[in-house]
Design brief:
Blueprint (H helix, E strand, L loop, with lengths): L1 E4 L10 H7 L12 H17 L3 E12 L2 E5 L4 E5 L1 H7 L4 E8 L3 H9 L6 H25 L23 H7 L2 H5 L2 E2 L5 E2 L3 E8 L1
Antiparallel strand pairs: 1-2, 2-3, 2-5, 3-4, 5-8, 6-7
Helix pairs in contact: 1-5, 2-5, 4-5
Amino acid sequence: MNIINYADGKKLNIDRKETFRYLGYHFGGSVPDDPELDKMVTELEKKLKEAVTPRCAYEIYALEVKDDSCVLSSDKQVLMINSARLSAHIRGCRNAILFAATLGPGADMLIRRYTGRSTIKPAILQAVGAAAIEAFADEVTDIIRSTPDTADLKMRFSPGYGDFSLEYQNDFFSLLSLEKNLGMSLNSALLMSPSKSITAVIGVI
């Protein structure tokens, strides 16, 4: 099992354009010309970075793609994923990585703190948090990519995309011991806690 742990979130490089995209602004890659909004986003981004404790867990498996199924195997574990979309995405890869990342509970606590006190700040924090977990996932993917055996990776493909069922979240939690390793939990609706968390399969070319 591989664990990547940021002591805090201050080193996160959050893409401001992604934050505004999550807020619903689409200006061809630019950000809105609104100094007051930009000031509020800057303030809340700083608060979120101070609150979060980003962590990642991942494991590399041998991969075999059979028609619309992917078989991930190790010495101790075998996982079959039935998904035509995932199979097409990682067909031809030699390995697959089960990947999970979270910002920790701090983001959710910060959002709850502002809920009821402001109408816009919780929405901004939701957007900053969404951009932050993507930034963290990108950063740790680059760390994984820095080793020769995993230098060439496909894009992450998460449960819930296309026909890759959310039911497979149970397998991620079991195989990566996410409750123990990252402090994550999964409810009966297959929603993760902390909410700013992601799971994915990454093909190794």
